[in-house]
Amino acid sequence: MKKRNKKILTLFGTRPEIIKLAPIIREMEEREEGFQTVNVTSAQHTDLLYPFVRLFGIRLDHDLHVMVPKQTPNQVCARVLSLLEPILEKEQPDLILIQGDTTTALAGALAGFHLHIPVGHVEAGLRSGNPLSPFPEEMNRRLITQLATYHFVATARNRGTLLAEGVSAQRTFLTGNPVVDSLKMMLEKCSVSSTVACLLKRTLGLKRIVLTTHRRESFGEAMAENLKVLRSFVERHEDTALLFPVHPNPIVVDLARTLLGGCPRIHLIEPMNYDEFIVLLSHSWLIVSDSGGIQEEAPSLGKPLLILRENTERPEAVESSVARLVGGCAKRLGTMLEEVIEDGVWAKEISKTENPFGRGDSGRRIVDIISRVLRGDNDALQV
Q1: Do residues 184 and 275 touch, judged by C-beta distance below 8 A?
Q2: Predicted pLDDT of residue 34
Q3: Are the C-beta atoms of 124 and 142 separated by less than 8 Å?
Q4: For the chain, percent of residues with pLDDT exceeding 90
Q5: Mean pLDDT of all residues in the chain?
Q6: In angstroms, what is the C-alpha Rg of the chain?
Q7: Among 161, 179, 178, 177, CA closest to 169
Q8: pLDDT grade, residue 379 (50/70/90)?
Q9: Residue 10 pairs with which residues in a beta bridge?
Q10: How confident is the model over 77-94, as a mean pLDDT?
Q11: What is the pLDDT at residue 1?
């Protein structure tokens, strides 16, 4: 009797998750040996998620539609668990594949554990050292480690972290980060959209600072003070411009409009498609962000990055000299901005730096390992 293809259920709910899982899904679906793929979204992000699903051509088999206004992480987790369980019982996958540190990923790992289904965790082993920062992501990733069966890590440091925590070396695999795969694909295929072309024209000849900030721990006074510092810097330096794709969270929108509105060289723009955003980053002079994903994208683009956080679970970006950690002090942000513009050498040095997060072949490497472990190939456990 012919053996059935191994069934992989991939769960994602946010923009970063689909960006990093898309190369793996694509690789599984193109394999001659054949995987049966089941793609499930929680829709933890809504407006931000679906354009990326379309961009990467991902088929959605199940959409949980979990989000309602003002929902707490506990409520998201509970809804994903309750809605995912009947899908898992129906589909009976050989492996659940999750990515990162979202509430969706945590719920997927817990659901798999409850139903005795193996879980593969992409981008495993990240740690900030502070269980409350980033919140709730840092604790999510620690809990997922305890629930997952296979751990796909981006760097040797990530692997060392898991081994130090007692995770089996035979189930921990160094693969690089598939965000580099997606980034390379976008740079090869995307063209400059009318939106980006207009922004580039309006800021021609200026040093472009691209800002993103949306993390929960940045809300309130910390974000407000950072925005004030950035506005003051742009107003003092007439050769600079600030480009800010504003996250749709009402807190971020209100602060951006109040503190950054009315300055002709500050451009508040709607959230962008990934390909548009990558093109914009590629034309930047400096990136300022509290995003984890951008810490992986900046090295691929050879762009300097100031990290608006007190710590980072991606110290490789700092160690490679691509990024500098600002900390929680807006005054320090102002000092570092002045240092960057006075120095003028940092960006030139960064363009020669090797990307610490991979070579753009992580999707293939992860699927190679999944293929071997699911067919019982003991050699896979030596990777």
Answers
A1: no
A2: 80
A3: no
A4: 66
A5: 91
A6: 21
A7: 161
A8: low
A9: 39, 97
A10: 97
A11: 43
Average pLDDT over residues 29-47: 88
Question: What residue type is 215 in one-letter code?
Answer: R
- Residues annotated as part of the active site: 101, 123, 137, 214, 216, 247
Q: Would you state the structure tokens that stand for residue 181, as one six-digit string?
A: 């795969």
CA 257/CA 109 separation, integer angstroms:
39
Task: Return the pLDDT at 361.
Answer: 95
Residue range 313-342, pLDDT digits in tens: 889 999 989 999 998 889 999 999 999 999
SS (H, E, C) the chain: CCCCCEEEEEEECCHHHHHHHHHHHHHHHHCCCCEEEEEEECCCCCCCCHHHHHHCCCCCCEECCCCCCCCCHHHHHHHHHHHHHHHHHHHCCCEEEEECCCHHHHHHHHHHHHCCCCEEEEEECCCCCECCECCCHHHHHHHHHHHCCEEEECCHHHHHHHHHCCCCHHHEEECCCCHHHHHHHHHHHCCCCHHHHHHHHHCCCCEEEEEECCCHHHCCHHHHHHHHHHHHHHHHCCCEEEEEECCCCHHHHHHHHHHHCCCCCEEEECCCCHHHHHHHHHCCCEEEECCHHHHHHHHHHCCCEEECCCCCCCHHHHHCCCEEECCCCHHHHHHHHHHHHHHCCHHHHHCCCCCCCCCCCHHHHHHHHHHHHHCCCHHHHHC
Residues linked to residue 6 through DSSP beta bridges, in sequence order: 35
Phi, psi for 299 (deg, rounded to 5): -65, -35
CA distance 48 to 236: 34
Instruction: Provide the pLDDT for residue 218.
Output: 67
- 167 CB neighbour count, 10 Å cutoff: 19
**Angle in degrees, 0-180, between the axes of helices 15-30 and 292-301, rounded to the nearest 10:** 60
- Specify whether the CB–CB gap between 208 and 283 falls below 8 A: yes
- CA dist 209 → 14, 186, 297 (Å): 25, 21, 15
User: How far is it, in rounded angstroms, from Cα 158 to Cα 151?
Assistant: 10
Range of weakest confidence among 15-24, 40-49, 147-156: 40-49
> Does pLDDT of 217 surpass 70?
no
41 bridge partner residues: 12, 63
Average pLDDT over residues 255-262: 92
Structure confidence by residue, pLDDT tens digits, 339-362: 999 987 887 788 778 888 988 999
Question: Do 241 and 260 touch, CB atoms closer than 8 A?
Answer: no
